[in-house]
Batch of 2 targets.
Target 1
Amino acid sequence: MIVAGNWKMNKTPSEAVAFVKELIPKLAGAKAEVVVGVPYVALPGVVEALKGTNIKVAAQNMHYEEKGAYTGEIAAGMLRDIGVDYVIIGHSERRQYFGETDVSVNKKVHAAIGAKLIPIVCVGESLEEREQGVTAEIVRRQVKIALLGVDRSLLLDSKLVIAYEPIWAIGTGKTATNEQADEVCRTIRALLAELYDKDAAAKVSIQYGGSVTAANAKELFAMPDINGGLVGGASLKADDFEVIANA
C-alpha cells in the first residue's frame, strides 16, 4: 500500500518544509508507504526535513537524458544525488500541457530505474475515451509502452508503481466509482501478468488517483486491486492527508 501526495505547483520551499514538519507526527504510525511529491525548488529542504522519518520524497517529473543542453530540465541522477526516492512520470497534466508521450514516458522510466529512483507511472483515459468505451485499450497501450524493456526483477522487487488516474476525475471533484476504479486497476494487473507473470503482477502497487479525499479514501483503498492513492489537492491539507494515509 502506497499513498503519495502530488503537490503540483504549490508551496514555496519554506512553506513546504513547514508543512512536512507538521506531517511527521501525524503520519508516524502510518502502515502505508507515504510519499510527498514536491516542486523541484522545495526538494532539498524537504529531503533534509524528512531524514530519519517514514515519509519518502518524490519529484514530479524529470528528463530522460543523463545530462546535456536541455535548459530548464532536471536529470534523474540530480534527483538521486539529493536524496529523492520516487519520481512521478507521465502525469496527465504533463501529457496534456507539455507534450509528454508514451514513448518519452518509457524513456523516463528507464532513466529513473538507472538512477535507482522508483517511478510512479501515471496512466488514464479522457472523458471522451471513457464514453467511447475504449478505456481498457487506452490504459493497456499506455502501460505496455511505458514498460517496454523493463525487467521482471524490478516488478518483483516492488521498484515500480503504476497510478491509474482517469483524466476526467483529476481536479474536477468527480471520482470514478469504487467499482470503476478497481476494474481498471484489475485490467492493469491482468496486463502485467500477460507481460510478465502473476507473481510479478502481484508485487506491483497500483494506485488510484482522481479526486481522492479524506471522505472516499477508505472505501477506494479497500477494493481488491487498488493499493493506495496518488492524491492531489487533499495532500495539501495536513489533516486530510493524515486521514488518507491512514486509510
Note: The first strand starts at residue 2 and ends at 6.
Target 2
Amino acid sequence: MCNFYFFAILQSFNEIFMTRKIVVGITQGDTNGIGYEVIIKALSDARILEICTPVVYGSSKAFGLYRKDIPETENINTNVISSAKDAHPKRVNIVNCVPDNLQIEPGQCTNDGAKAAIIALEKAVEEIKAGHLDAIVTAPFNKRSVNEETFKYAGHTEYLINEFEAKDGLMFLCSDKMRVGVATGHIALSKVSQALNPELIVSKLRIMNESLLKDFNIVKPKLAVLGLNPHSGDKGLMGDEEQNIIAPAIKMANEEGIMAFGPYPPDGFFSVNMQYKFDAVLAMYHDQGLIPFKSLAFDSGVNFTAGLPVVRTSPDHGTAFDLAGENKANPQSMISSIYLAVDVVRNRERYAQMHANPLKIKEFETQQKERTGKPFIA
C-alpha cells in the first residue's frame, strides 16, 4: 500500500517531467552482428519517437545497408548529424562517427566490426559527458574481438564504471516482473570464490538498494541474496562461503538499514518463484543469475548498469552473428532497453525533485491522514 501512496505523490510531478523529450544515445555495437537490425526494428515503432529523441552512433551507410532488408521500416525518417546537440526531435538521428572504410560483413566476427563498436561507444560516452544525451543504450559487441583491439575491459559494464569513475557498479538484469544483479561479473568461474568477500557483497547490495529507490522509485526494497554452493553449503558440508562471507555480509547490510535476506539455496530459488516475492535478487556469479533470468525473460530482458552517474541500458543478448542479415532478430529486448532508459531518467528526476521538496511530501502526508484517518507510512 505504501508504494501506492508514494507513486501518488510522484504523479504530481508528471507534468513537469513530461514537458521535455529524453535524448537517448544508441550505440551500434558490432557492425556485423544483429545490432543494427534490432535498432532499426525498434525505431520503426512510432511509440519510441513519442517518448524520446533517438540518436544512433555508428554509420548511416551501415544503417542503410541493414534497413533495405527490413521491409517494414519504410516509415523511418533519418537525420544525419555530427552531434546529439543537433538532434531532430521527430526523426531517427544518426551520428556518423564510424569511418566508411571499415568493412561490413554481416555474420562475421572481424576486427573492423570490433573497431566500429568501440568508436561508436566512445563517441556516445563523450556526448553524454558533454550533456548532449540523457541516457545510453548499447547494442552488443563481441568481447573477445574488442579486446583484440584497444578495448581492455571485460565488457561495457567495466568500461563505463571506469569512464565515469564510479566506486563500484552492478550488472542488473531487469524485466517487468524481476530484477537480478550479480556480485561478480565477467570473471572465470574458478575465480569466483576467491573474489567474494563481505565488503564486495555489501557494496553490491548498497548499489542495488539505492538503485531500487532512485531508479525504480520502490519504497523499502526487499533484496534476496543467493548462496554460492549447492544447498547454500548445507551448514558447511558443501562449502563455507555462506557461513563465513555471505551471511556476515547480509548482517552488515541489515545494520545499514538495507532489507536483505538469505542466503537462499540457488538451485530451488527460481523454481518455486521466490524471485517474485522480492524487489531484486543478488546472485553470486554471472551464470547463477543470468541463466534463470534469460530463461524467464529473454525476449524482454534488459541489462542495466546500476551505480553510474549516467543511465545505461542494453539488450540482454549478444551479437548473434548467426542471425545477422537474416531479418530474424527479435527487437523486443532493444525496445525494452530504450523504454527502461527513459523510465530511469524520469525516475531519477522525480526522486531528486521529491527530496528537494520535503514540504510537498509533508503536505501529501497531511492530506492522506485527513482523508483516511490513518497516517502516511512511506
Note: DSSP finds 15 helices and twelve strands in the chain.
